[in-house]
Automatic annotation (TrEMBL):
Its main location: membrane. It comes from Entamoeba invadens IP1. This is Multidrug resistance-associated protein, putative. Belongs to the ABC transporter superfamily. ABCC family. Conjugate transporter (TC 3.A.1.208) subfamily. InterPro entries: AAA+_ATPase, ABC1_TM_dom, ABC1_TM_sf, ABC_transporter-like_ATP-bd, ABC_transporter-like_CS, ABC_transporter_C-like, ABCC_6TM_D2, P-loop_NTPase. Keywords: ATP-binding, Membrane, Nucleotide-binding, Transmembrane, Transmembrane helix, Transport. Pfam families: ABC_membrane, ABC_tran.
Amino acid sequence: MSEKQILNDIELQDENEKESLSSTEEETYFENDDVARYEKKKINPFFKFFRTLFFRMTFDQILKGRKGNLSIKDMNEIPRTLRLEKYERQLSKQWSKEEHSKHPSLFRAIFRQEWMQFVLIYFTTAIYELFALAFPLMSSFIIKWLNKEDAGVGMGILWIALTILFQLITTLSSEFTKKWAFTLGLRIRNGLIGIIYDKALKLNSAGIVEPGKLINLMGNDCPVYIGNIEMIMFGSASPVMFIVLFVLIWNNMGKWVYVPLVVFVVFVALNVFFGMMYGFFYYKFIYAKDKRLSFFSEILKNIKFVKYNRWEKPMVKKTLAKRVLEIIFLFFVGFSRSLFFSLAIQIGSAMSIAIFTVMIFKEAQFQLAAVITTISLFNSIRVPVRTIGLLATCTSTINVAMTRIEKFLLTRELPPISINNSSSENAIEMKNVKFIYPNGETAFECEDLNIKKGEFVCVIGSVGSGKSSFLMSVLSELERQEGDVTINGKVTYASQNPWLMNSSVRENILFLNSFDKKKYNQVVKDACLVTDIDSLMGGDAYVVSEKGSNLSGGQRQRIALARALYDSKDIMLLDDPLSAVDFQVGTYIFENAIQKSLKQKTRIIVTNQMYLLEKADRILVLENNKLAFNGSLEELKKSDLASSQLVKTLSVKSEKAEDQTEEIITGDAYATKVREESREVGRLPLSVYFNYIKSGSFILFAMVVLMLVGRIVALYYYNASLTKWGKSLHPLLKLPQGKKEFFYQFCYSFIGDTVGVFGCEICLVLFCITVSVRLHKQTINKLLRCKLGFFDITPIGRIQNLFTRDFHMLDFNMPYYIEPLIVNISTILITFITIVQTSIYLVIMVLAILIIFVAIYSFVIKPVIELQRLDSIMRGPIFVHFDQTILGLPIVRASGAQISFKEKLIAKVKNNTVALYACKMTKYWFLQRSDWIGALISIVTVIVIVVTKLKHSMEPSLAGTALTNITSIPTSITNFAMSLIEIETFMQSTERILMINKLRNEESERVKEKYVEPSKLWPTTGKIEFVDFKFRYRRGLPVVLNKISAVVEDKEKLVLLVELVVESPL
């Protein structure tokens, strides 16, 4: 097949193939200015109490989310407790006190600000944990009541009433502890984001060595309090519960209480140790992730350089190599978490078996009521034991995050540019100055330099001679080690690499200044932008994407220059402003903008274009970061500097525009729209779950299922053996210790349960790591092999969000929530099997409960997913804005735009806050209904036991087994519901990652098949041949090269001539 046919096939395919990441909504060119609002109007106190009590704050979003996509316009107002600006100022004030102390602590600053909220959350947590012991304690009295022949109706009603009361107190205290802890964590997150952003605005651009680390600070470290506060409060309140627990055990079992106490101390010590090990490896995991993300951020920022040099494979290989250490630490994080999760689950049963084994060995007498109460009490501490283990883990996690943030906040700041308004004739005065880079190397130094007001100064020198460093020194963006600098007047700066905001063309030019139509039109004309703006969809309302990737290089540079012209101040620092334009356009801009419009300004231009030197009042030559020459062009020609030799050989010509009515038409006037972030509609398709499982190992997945089934079987025999042993303890049988073979079966089933739990946990950790590793490898390969145009229309911040937040969900959060899901599935299933054995009527209750649960879940899951998607979409702009600010720090600082940029960040954080808050409150709405289901199971079971006893006869051992199981059923159902809904929402990350894997490669496999494999010795010559070659920059743009046929022979020298088009309106 000929090359011509191949090229035509490529063109045809490019025309017809659909974009794989097309959004379900209409893509827009224009910026969305919707910003969440704060709650203003006062709400009726009764209605507010009712709405808060039943978590109806986001019920409107639930109804809207069931109909379709949600946007910021659909969100309620932000609660007053989450006011960003006020809280950030308060937290910043507390940190300022700490910053200047001997041992600064960010946590102390946070605690001083929020100590009342911490105390309130601790109080409600303590209430929950203490009342969690009330129902197990009541079980003893219920068993004694069941053993009576003449059981009174009044006592039965009392048991039912107390069950309702205890369930009401525990559910409400648990729900509001979680709500207040989340709100506190979200408030702290927002405050920390604001403080970090403020700090970044006060640092010089060279001082921010690792931008990827800063992104990780905002993405993973700032939200560290969300979720961890809840665990810390539950863990810190647990000791009070444990003291009460062993007092109750001592009251029931007497001197034998010391046996479970020893087991408890050993288990808790192990849990704390595993928690500390977890925290240690988590710190190592995050540190390794920082290194990988920093390296990957550099790849993204230099993606054109990588792809032009065909470095995709080496970059993938190096990124994956950095990922290896991260995965090793991630495995140990999962391993240590599996150990303390398993211990927390089994500690109740272990203490029960330990005390009963010693009592049997010592031939002590058992009473069924005491046995049931002991097992019930021990079962009730599974969650507190788990949280006390997580106390060390979460504390360590927060400590790691706070240490990292503290280190950044304590970075030494450089003083801002000092502006004087003296009457001196000099605009800039430098005397014996030396500026250094962060690594201590010299950036710029000179003995004496005075630049007069209104002078036109050209700065020249070889590559790396320190030209840009000189401008950074004037801007105070580098550390001054010695000497004096005086700046007389305000400064405007245009950087070497054009920096643009993610806003409209007009906003980029105005840059926070008020709109003056006459001045604006003149600036657009002087910058040669009239034709370009006319070609853009929407004109100057066209939104520039991140780094101006939807504009050409010339357009970017001219818009940046136009911004400097519109914001022109006393001193203009222009770093190579004409490097991306051709000679005629550059001459036009120079004559009309720099020479004419800025005639009264002090103009300092860094340039390598020698035709500007003839107009310069003064020329500065830099060599080896030192000022080597300061004088006129004629003086430079007479000097012995290396730069003078170049000047002597140049024929500097002055080309002026013949008439001001002429307009230069540039050859790069085209528009490319930025792709909106893709967004699916409705619930996740089953294919996402299948692809997630397929990305892992089917063998490991089968092992997880096998271990889960083994645990269910072991739990069934555990309850069956307990019931049989309980029956053998009946006083009429006169067996003080019951039948020992049933007790031994009870012990064996516990061992089987322990093996099943730990085996399931380990297999799950390995499975999730396998999924994460394979998806990361596929995504990296796919991303670096996709077309370069993808990076032009996709903000880097969005990709960084994918590799920070989304992959963190896969690495860490998914196994964290899958583990309790599978554990609670087995617990709930066995509980249902056990309680239906007490009465056939409970089968109806179980079926009704299942129907109600599925109905509520189906009602709420679609809105939760929509809110989660909105949260993810609203999180991306925060990273994009932060990344843009870092790139444009010198311009932002020189223009005094810090406050305005901070306001933009707050607007983006507000949008994310309202989406995240609505998502979490909707989940709590669902969890409250799940709590009611768990409480209903306990209440109905007690009612059935009481009614059965009053009407017929109830076997105490069977009722006792049921009571021991329903002790933890509300917690199990709540944890199961929470895990279920979190997993489905976290799978959004998997969905987004899988969408990236659908990106088109640079070249389709169908076209590749048509190529002839060259020999290993190819190429032998440097010949290039074009046959009817067509080219455009990316899909949707016009063809810029059409049917080009040319041959470049080996060793030929080629000169490209470009026709300059000049049109006159006359």
